[in-house]
Amino acid sequence: MTPAKKTSKDTKPAEVAPKSSPASSPAAVKLTANGSIAISIHAKPNAKESSIAGLSDAAVEVQISAPPKDGEANSELVRFMADILGLKKSQVALDKGSKSREKVVLLDGDCGLTPAEVVVRLKKQCGDE
């Protein structure tokens, strides 16, 4: 009986993300409590050009064509994510990880996208359809 309680506790936080389609939405793209979409990013600065290198459950690997100096890579990441997702730069913000390769980017709740749609657009960019 007690293992069932542990399972129910484990599923409560995960219930937020599966509202879009659980099979197509990796854990790297989540719906937050306030309606925003959080994307976990593993950034690779100093790349030849900005691109999506891969998409896993842990994070979206993004190659950034800017050096990690004076916030240049962070600005390029926000610009690039807005561009590939078809959003305005004002709808995309760096939430965590300004000085780390592990970052979290937030999309406004009123951006008109679901986590599943974000995953589809990211997969199109990395060729994993």
Automatic annotation (TrEMBL):
Pfam short name (any one): DUF167
SMART domains: DUF167
Low complexity bias locations: 14-28
Gene3D superfamilies, sorted: YggU-like (3.30.1200.10)
Region described as Disordered: 1-28
Highest taxon of the lineage: Eukaryota
GO CC annotation: cytoplasm
NCBIfam families reported for this sequence: DUF167 family protein
Similarity remark: Belongs to the UPF0235 family.
Protein name, entry field: UPF0235 protein C15orf40-like protein
UniProt source species: Hypsibius exemplaris (Freshwater tardigrade)
Upper lineage: Eukaryota, Metazoa, Ecdysozoa, Tardigrada, Eutardigrada
